[in-house]
UniProtKB/TrEMBL annotation:
InterPro entries named among the record's database cross-references: Cell_cycle_FtsW-rel_CS, FtsW, FtsW/RodA
Localization annotation: Cell inner membrane; Cell membrane
Molecular-function GO terms, alphabetical: lipid-linked peptidoglycan transporter activity; peptidoglycan glycosyltransferase activity
Catalytic activity, as annotated: [GlcNAc-(1->4)-Mur2Ac(oyl-L-Ala-gamma-D-Glu-L-Lys-D-Ala-D-Ala)](n)-di-trans,octa-cis-undecaprenyl diphosphate + beta-D-GlcNAc-(1->4)-Mur2Ac(oyl-L-Ala-gamma-D-Glu-L-Lys-D-Ala-D-Ala)-di-trans,octa-cis-undecaprenyl diphosphate = [GlcNAc-(1->4)-Mur2Ac(oyl-L-Ala-gamma-D-Glu-L-Lys-D-Ala-D-Ala)](n+1)-di-trans,octa-cis-undecaprenyl diphosphate + di-trans,octa-cis-undecaprenyl diphosphate + H(+)
Main location: membrane
Membrane topology label: Multi-pass membrane protein
Ranges annotated as spanning the membrane: 52-75, 95-115, 121-139, 184-202, 208-225, 232-250, 310-334, 355-376, 388-409
Gene: ftsW
Pathway note: Cell wall biogenesis; peptidoglycan biosynthesis
UniProt keyword Glycosyltransferase present: yes
The family this protein is said to belong to: Belongs to the SEDS family. FtsW subfamily.
Protein name: Probable peptidoglycan glycosyltransferase FtsW
UniProt keyword annotations, A-Z: Cell cycle, Cell division, Cell inner membrane, Cell membrane, Cell shape, Cell wall biogenesis/degradation, Glycosyltransferase, Membrane, Peptidoglycan synthesis, Transferase, Transmembrane, Transmembrane helix
One of the GO BP terms on file: FtsZ-dependent cytokinesis
Gene source species: Caldimonas caldifontis
């Protein structure tokens, strides 16, 4: 046997021995080829991604771009926006989507191990920004609320970063506390303290809507992480009690609740319930098939914030019940798919990734539910945008980054199921 033949046979034997050490992870009775540097001569690469999830997100972004333009094209007729071009919000929204796309490409390159390692520091960074936005020389106030940090091309809202940060922190927290999750003071109390701190900073802005979403994310991750049921319901009762106390102690919040309960009362329809009544009128005008794209009347200065918080009402008026049902189904499918990716990661013993994905699912699904409920008059009015659709640079940016993290989790899941390494 020649030297070349002996070398080739030795290399084949080495691959066979090393390949035997790698577990196959296919279905029962089915071998899965090992796709790594042993068989290809190349470093391990992530292969495959959830194309359906990507296309649903792209469709929602595209619909949002069209509807933001439709809802905002008449705003320059208002003296408040007289210096704006008709395409002002369209261009800025398109730039936000472009920036989000670039950020997603970067996020997709970051392994989940890196996110898990730095999750506490990301949470600390979010807390610092929540403090900074309250400072007069840093934060920007609009309509009595101080929630934005002006960056020139973008007004960044730290509460949007806090939603992703709390999802990562809670997921990492549950992994670290897995051995003591049955003990209240060791497992739940520190997380509750962190949530209280975030809540105080958000209520100082004030931004009760963001706090509701963040509380839902933290509580959901704790529940899915396996916290004792009695401790979970005790903590949930405390959170609900805190919200009731905040409403009862705030006169304008009480008025908003009364307006929600009886929006057509003359005392409310021209005051706290003004947005809600015009939102309901928009849905009523839309009927089944809508008035047609661009044909909304309510967006002509009758419905405030039509391109942000009440974009769904414009969709209902122009695209009708069919359009609204399609949006609701898209968010239902998206949330369900994100949860499936999370469960898949947990089944592969990747608890941090799984809980994080489910936390993102709670964020997207929960915020969409609240926004839709507000638009339809099912829930009291809150200043929350519709994820991936409403106008808002930092919201679009953080929504897309969160989806990119879920895609990274899915890609690593697929790599592991092929017998590779995440």
């Amino acid at each position: 046997m020649s030297t070349t033949s002996r070398a080739a046979s030795g290399w084949e034997a080495f691959k066979a021995r090393l390949g035997a050490l790698r577990p196959a992870s296919g279905k029962k009775g089915q071998d899965v080829p090992v796709r790594d540097w042993v068989s290809t001569g190349q470093p391990t690469r992530l292969q495959g991604f959830d194309q359906a999830l990507v296309w649903v997100v792209v469709a929602l972004l595209a619909l949002g771009l069209v509807m933001v333009y439709s809802a905002s094209v008449a705003l320059p007729d208002n003296p408040r926006f007289a210096r704006y071009e008709p395409t002002h919000f369209l261009v800025r929204h398109a730039l936000s989507i472009g920036l989000a796309f670039i950020a997603c490409l970067v996020v997709l390159q970051i392994p989940m191990q890196v996110w898990e390692k730095h999750a506490p520091w990301l949470f600390v960074g979010a807390l610092v920004l929540l403090v900074a936005v309250l400072l007069p020389f840093i934060g920007k106030g609009v309509n009595g609320a101080r929630r934005w940090i002006p960056l020139g091309f973008l007004n960044f809202q730290p509460s949007e970063l806090a939603k992703l940060a709390i999802a990562m922190y809670a997921a990492g927290y549950m992994v670290r506390k897995m051995d003591v999750k049955e003990r209240f003071f060791q497992a739940v109390a520190p997380m509750a303290a962190a949530l209280v701190l975030v809540g105080l900073l958000l209520l100082a802005q004030p931004d009760m809507g963001a706090f509701m979403v963040i509380a839902a994310i933290a509580m959901g991750v704790l529940f899915l992480g396996g916290v004792n049921g009695r401790m979970f319901f005790l903590m949930a009762a405390l959170v609900v009690g805190a919200f009731v106390l905040m409403v009862s102690l705030s006169e304008w919040r009480r008025e908003r609740i009364f307006a929600y309960l009886d929006p057509w009362n003359e005392a409310h329809s021209l005051g706290r319930a003004y947005q809600l009544t015009h939102s309901l009128i928009a849905f009523g005008r839309g009927e089944i098939f809508g008035q047609g794209l661009g044909s909304s009347v309510e967006k002509l200065h009758y419905l405030p914030e039509a391109h942000t918080d009440f974009l769904l009402a414009v969709i209902g008026e122009e695209l009708g019940f069919i359009g609204v049902a399609a949006v609701i189904f898209a968010f239902f499918w998206l949330t369900r798919r994100i949860f499936h990716i999370g469960r898949q990661a947990i089944a592969l013993d990747r608890v941090f990734s799984g809980l994080l994905a489910q936390g993102v699912g709670i964020w997207v699904g929960g915020q969409a539910f609240i926004n839709m409920g507000v638009n339809l008059g099912v829930l009291p009015t809150k200043g929350l945008t519709l994820p991936l659709l409403s106008y808002g640079g930092s919201a679009i940016l953080m929504n897309c980054i969160a989806i990119a993290v879920v895609l990274r989790i899915d890609m690593e899941n697929r790599q592991l199921m092929r017998g590779g390494r995440a």
